[in-house]
Specification:
It contains 25 helices and eleven strands. With about 475 residues, it is an alpha+beta fold. Strands 3-4-5-2-1-8-9 form a seven-stranded mixed beta sheet. A two-stranded antiparallel sheet has the order 6-7. A two-stranded parallel sheet has the order 10-11. The longest helix has about 30 residues. It is globular and about 100 Å long. The model has no long low-confidence stretch (mean pLDDT about 90). It binds adenosine-5'-triphosphate and magnesium ion. The site of magnesium ion (MG) has 4 residues, from α3 and β2.
Length: about 475
């Protein structure tokens, strides 16, 4: 068995790891068993991005949510009936905690009865085998993989396999989910699942998907890496109608989606990983008029505050564009300070949609020129320290001044920077010593190489010999005189 704990820890960001440890700790205090489940485990195994952490506990997560809130986590939504909490942990880590539950369908397609259960029952009631895997986070079995429906093998074969013949009848939204998962992962539907899928479509079960369920799928779609692949599948399967007839008629904004994806890749390269759900949603629905968009979202169960925020997004982006084209951001340093504070999803939206060249050139300069200079600023601080300037407010101000100068394209070389740093700090260059004085000092400092040492020793010996010979000769001469 591979070491899933090691895999997990090496794949989680530090913030995600902290969130996991906190959940583990709280579960242990409350005496609940806790597991990582669903999409998190699937993405971990397939090597996909771990966007969120889905936990399942054998107990009620509401107390955990209260404790987590005390530590700064935000509860995004809480379903008390389902005992399910969506959270934003510290450090912007998305996640959820759900109570393990079993679902019992009296008849296929009716509302299920819910019973609180063990993790194994919870895994078996899930939609597809690749989503029905868990990793234990409990002290005695940390890292153990629970895979009661053989999901690992389906992942290896690249197949989405439904867990029961009643899967689509019980929850027709799984028709959308099956295609979404398959498209996202480049998998196919397993052959029996495909048969069940076709049968469900023949019986027009897709028409019974509730708008709210379709809305949840649209939410997930807007967080996908490549939503265009999923939309194409839904469109080919005539399922787009279910999201909204207008979307099927006018088609998704594939061009806008592609523009945003290109920008997102660019942002990744520059070291940013923004959440782009709102601009992506706007791109998906970009062919709809404003009115049509708000009607569609409202039908899909979006709350009115959410709809308002989505509608206002382009207006806010326009305000930002105006600022970027205006006087207040004329100098690079002013533009930098302004852009630094804009949420990245607006930067992404403008880069994808704006045609204002002044705004665009500043945003591009920010990402590709100014940010790298900013990241190299610690070097300037080291250089200033080396000149003998003590750290403090004046020190920081000088570093910031050099940054502003650098954004204007100067102070690129270390020599140039040292000159500027001396000027700004008032630290003069030490006076140069005269050439004549220097030479003997240099000679004094000269360190002999081994070869030189040998030569010197030989010379000493020769001198000694010559001296001895000279003495002998002198002695002989002296003798002769006598
Ligand atoms: P994503 O990466 O989109 O978040 P996910 O698989 O985590 O993918 P969620 O919608 O967050 O999707 O659902 C979490 C888990 O809950 C799923 O992995 C699946 O096990 C289960 N689940 C979600 N919807 C259903 C459903 N309709 N029927 C059964 N199980 C479901
Ligand atoms: Mg999830």
């Amino acid at each position: 068995m591979p070491d899933y704990m090691f895999l997990l820890e090496s794949r989680l960001s530090p913030e995600q790891r902290a969130a996991m440890l906190r959940v583990q700790e709280l579960a242990s205090v409350l005496g609940f068993n806790v597991y990582l489940t669903g999409g998190t485990v699937r993405d971990l195994i397939t090597g996909a991005n771990l966007r969120d952490l889905d936990f399942t506990v054998e107990g009620n997560p509401s107390k955990m949510a209260r404790e987590l809130e005390k530590g700064g986590a935000k509860v995004l939504s809480e379903d008390e009936k389902l005992r399910q909490v969506e959270l934003l942990f510290a450090g912007d880590v998305e996640g959820s905690i759900s109570a393990a539950r079993d679902e019992h369908y009296v008849r296929p397609g009716t509302r299920p009865e819910i019973r609180w259960s063990t993790i194994m029952e919870d895994l078996r009631r899930r939609d597809f085998s690749l989503n029905a895997i868990a990793i234990s986070l409990n002290p005695a079995s940390r890292g153990l993989l629970l895979d009661p429906t053989n999901g690992l093998s389906d992942i290896e074969h690249g197949e989405v396999r439904a867990l029961s013949i009643h899967s689509f009848t019980n929850q027709p939204v799984r028709l959308l989910r099956a295609l979404r998962l398959a498209a996202r992962m480049g998998f196919k539907l397993e052959s029996r699942t495909q048969e069940w899928f076709n049968l469900a479509i023949e019986r027009e079960l897709q028409l019974t998907i509730t708008p709210e369920d379709a809305g949840e799928e649209v939410r997930s779609l807007s967080r996908e890496e490549r939503p265009q692949l999923i939309l194409k599948e839904w469109e080919e399967g005539d399922l787009l109608e279910l999201v909204h007839p207008i979307l099927a008629k006018k088609h998704p904004g594939y061009d806008a989606i592609n523009r945003l994806i290109k920008v997102r890749d660019d942002l990744y390269m520059a070291g940013f990983r923004p959440r782009l759900a709102t601009p992506m949603l706007l791109a998906i629905f970009s062919r709809l008029k404003d009115r049509e968009l708000s009607n569609t979202l409202s039908k899909l169960g979006y709350r009115s505050a959410e709809i308002e925020a989505i509608e206002k997004f382009p207006e806010k982006a326009l305000d930002i564009q105006k600022e970027l084209a205006g006087k207040k951001t004329k100098t690079p340093i002013d533009a930098y300070r302004y852009i630094e504070k804009i949420p990245m999803e607006y930067v992404a939206y403008l880069l994808a949609e704006s045609s204002n060249s002044a705004a665009l050139s500043k945003l591009k300069a920010f990402l590709h020129k100014w940010r790298p200079v900013r990241q190299a600023l610690p070097i300037v601080a080291t250089e200033l320290e080396a000149l003998g300037m003590p750290r403090g407010p004046k020190f920081d101000q000088i570093v910031q001044d050099v940054f502003a100068i650098q954004l204007n394209g100067r102070a690129k070389t270390p020599e140039e920077r040292v000159k500027i740093l001396r000027k700004l700090s008032g630290i003069k260059e030490p006076p140069k010593k005269k050439e004549k004085e220097k030479k003997p000092a240099k000679a004094e400092k000269h360190v002999e190489t081994p070869a030189e040492k040998k030569a010197a020793a030989a010379e000493k010996h020769a001198t000694h010999e010559r001296h001895k010979a000279g003495m002998k000769a002198a002695a002989a001469k002296h003798k002769g005189k006598k």
